[in-house]
Design brief:
Layout (H helix, E strand, L loop, with lengths): L1 H7 L4 E7 L8 E5 L7 H11 L8 E3 L6 E2 L10 E5 L12 H9 L6 E2 L8 H6 L3 E7 L8 E6 L6 H12 L8 E4 L4 E2 L10 E5 L9 H5 L4 H4 L6
Parallel strand pairs: 1-5, 7-11
Antiparallel strand pairs: 1-2, 3-4, 3-5, 6-8, 7-8, 9-10, 9-11
Organism: Psophia crepitans (common trumpeter)
GO cellular component, one term: microtubule
Protein name: DCD2B protein
Length: about 230
Amino acid sequence: MSSRGLALAPPAKNVVVYRNGDPFFPGRKFVVNQRRFLTFEAFLNEVTKSICAPLAVRNLYTPRHGHHVAELGDLQDGHPYVAAGFEKFKRLDYLNHGRKELRRTRTGEGLQVSPRAGCRDTGSSHALGCSHCSVFRNGDLLSPPFALPLSKSTPLQWDALLAVLTEKADLRSGAVNKLCRLDGTQVSGGEELVSGDYYVAVGNEEYKNLPYRELLVPQDSACRTLWYAD
């Protein structure tokens, strides 16, 4: 009886999951089977943690046409998917865009956001010769700053940087339209960002001069590298 049950058990499925709206995320591989994931919700919870999603993953979509995946049985072995919260599916070339963009800019000089910017891995960023700045959300004195890894080896267009900030900040007002220093002066280009400095992501509203650093950054410098929210 037990051998028959094993024979009827569906085989494991290997899938790759991308982050909704993130053209630089390389994708994360998952092995899906009944022993590891009893429910679709359990799988979504694991995806949330593994891809460092800014919000809990509650939906999966096919990357090319945005078809919704409703249950574990709908997953197909060897296929890619896009993980999202409750926001709409964002149509991008997830399978090729990020890699093409990185190859295209590899010969330039300037500033680039690391493809792994969504993860709390400042140690690996330093190991790769990267640095990072810290970004607060305009008017938000409840959420700690998130880390924005930077590299001067390859350039990133300013609008692309704002797109990355929009995803990471998740402002209630919508997209991030500008980045300000703590004194309220606006940053006009990626070359102006300084490693270790603090900035504020701002939408369409005016910059709100609040004590972000005083209230949201621990005084103990040993804790600062761990005090980031994705």
